[in-house]
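Weekly sync, protein design subgroup
Attendees: M.S., D.O., the rotation student, P.L. (late)

Item 1: inverse folding check
M.S. brought a backbone from last month's batch and wanted to see whether the design step gives back something sensible before we order anything. D.O. pointed out we never logged the input encoding, so this time it goes straight into the notes. Structure tokens as presented (481 positions):
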């Protein structure tokens, strides 16, 4: 009886505190419950960082050969083990001086014909360089903070791009508050401009196709860019044609109303009991009510209190389970180190990737990207995904062990989608996905939708199962579906 009373009081306090915060007054920044990425402290080593390279004026200078601009953007340094890459800034909004940082790795095999793949990190406010060095890029940091080549990298068979997105993330920046994205339309527009400039600079073959990929909060970013490209290119003749073929979203938050239903999932895992389930259901109903009333800040605060717990004495999730890590239910806490943050901010790295002394926007401090997107977090991009499914391949993959955007939660929203093939999806057989004799996961196909559950992987599936995810993306981009 005491346990039930404690849970009821706890969730009541969480909801009241959350909604009170939404109703009045400013509150200090606290990271989003959806943001799994490490916080990087400021680091400076005194080495000359060089000057930032702004490529847009050079790209649009008709008297400057494209090869010369590429040479300026080339990343040079013995620490990169001869891996070819290019980096610099692309101006996406001249009025606000909004600039996006990119790092591009040509395919190791048949670069002239390889598909172009863009990777976007989530957050909101997490640098895509996290994905580069910890998930699917050609390089990774070892225990001694030295770069080594990765065994399984998406750049083996893809022209692979990383962009710090939205503006204000990582090395990307803007001079005006108005330059920050307020919604996913802003995100899609800025990314499209950056991608068009990259096509102008590197002139990839249209026949190889363009794919947008990402994870976590990029469950919003990926469809935002793809939908913007789809809408604009079907309405007007754009300066540059982007040959969009499809998208791949890993453990992505796309439709909070139907995804953020943790209670039943945690109960089935044995992490909460009947009393805890009742408390979760109460909060989830409150959050859903906020969303339906278009009170997105209230909805954010309710779910944040369920998982993050900054407004209360710990979150309901943490108090009931003892966990403070919800990106792999086999782990109760995070062991992330600081080596990546120090590497990225070192003068030698800065000089080589042409960012100069521009700040690396540190998630340990005020995250302006998230603050400007706070009303976007609980909104849905499901209608955009449904529209994309009528024209392009859409792969939704989920790590089996994730909690924050778990496979059953993603299935909840996919079953609500209305798209060509949606009726077939609900009854489609589930197939065993094998690689090299191992069971890598399970797959369902319906129309243009490919749904994959990746076995023994958490929120960051490419990190946990690099071989399987490399095989997945290569099959997705190189073969018809």
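Designed sequence read out in the meeting:
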């Amino acid at each position: 009886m005491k346990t039930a009373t404690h849970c009821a009081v706890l969730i009541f306090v969480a909801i009241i505190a959350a909604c009170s915060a939404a109703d009045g007054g400013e509150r200090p920044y606290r990271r989003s419950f959806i943001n799994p990425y490490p916080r990087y402290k400021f680091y400076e080593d005194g080495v000359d960082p060089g000057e930032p390279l702004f490529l847009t004026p050079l790209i649009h200078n008709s008297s400057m050969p494209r090869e010369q601009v590429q040479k300026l953007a080339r990343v040079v340094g013995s620490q990169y083990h001869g891996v070819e890459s290019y980096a610099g800034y692309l101006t996406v909004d001249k009025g606000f001086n909004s600039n996006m940082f990119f790092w591009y790795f040509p395919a190791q095999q048949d670069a002239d014909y390889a598909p172009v793949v863009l990777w976007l990190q989530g957050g909101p406010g997490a640098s895509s360089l996290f994905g580069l060095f910890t998930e699917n890029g050609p390089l990774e940091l070892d225990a001694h903070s030295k770069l080594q080549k990765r065994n399984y990298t998406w750049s083996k068979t893809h022209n692979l791009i990383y962009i710090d997105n939205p503006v204000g993330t990582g090395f990307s920046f803007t001079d005006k508050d108005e330059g920050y994205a307020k919604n996913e339309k802003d995100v899609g527009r800025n990314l499209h401009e950056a991608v068009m400039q990259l096509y102008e600079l590197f002139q990839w073959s249209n026949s190889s196709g363009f794919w947008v990929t990402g994870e976590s909060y990029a469950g919003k970013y990926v469809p935002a860019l793809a939908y913007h490209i789809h809408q604009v290119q079907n309405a007007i003749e754009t300066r540059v044609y982007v040959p969009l073929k499809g998208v791949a979203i890993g453990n992505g938050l796309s439709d909070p109303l139907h995804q953020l239903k943790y209670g039943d999932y945690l109960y089935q895992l044995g992490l909460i009991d009947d009393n805890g389930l009742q408390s979760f259901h109460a909060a989830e109903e409150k959050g859903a009510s906020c969303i339906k009333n278009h009170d997105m800040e209230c909805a954010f605060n309710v779910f944040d209190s369920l998982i993050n717990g900054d407004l209360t004495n710990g979150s309901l999730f943490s108090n009931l389970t003892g966990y403070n890590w919800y990106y792999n239910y086999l782990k109760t806490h995070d062991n992330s180190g600081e080596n990546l943050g120090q590497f990225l901010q070192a003068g030698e790295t800065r000089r080589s990737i042409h960012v100069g002394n521009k700040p690396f926007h540190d998630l340990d401090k005020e995250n302006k990207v998230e603050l400007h997107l706070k009303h976007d977090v609980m909104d849905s991009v499901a209608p955009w995904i449904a529209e994309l499914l009528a024209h392009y391949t859409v792969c939704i993959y989920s790590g089996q062990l994730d909690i924050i955007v778990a496979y059953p939660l993603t299935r909840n929203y996919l079953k609500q989608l209305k798209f060509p093939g949606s009726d077939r999806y609900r009854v489609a057989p589930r197939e065993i996905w094998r690689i090299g004799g191992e069971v890598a996961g399970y797959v369902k196909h319906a129309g243009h939708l490919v749904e994959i559950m990746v076995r023994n992987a958490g929120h960051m599936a490419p990190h946990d199962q690099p071989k399987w995810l490399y095989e997945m993306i290569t099959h997705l981009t190189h073969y018809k579906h």
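Discussion: The two ends are 54 Å apart (CA to CA). The chain has 19 helices and twelve strands.
Action: P.L. to compare against the previous round before Friday.
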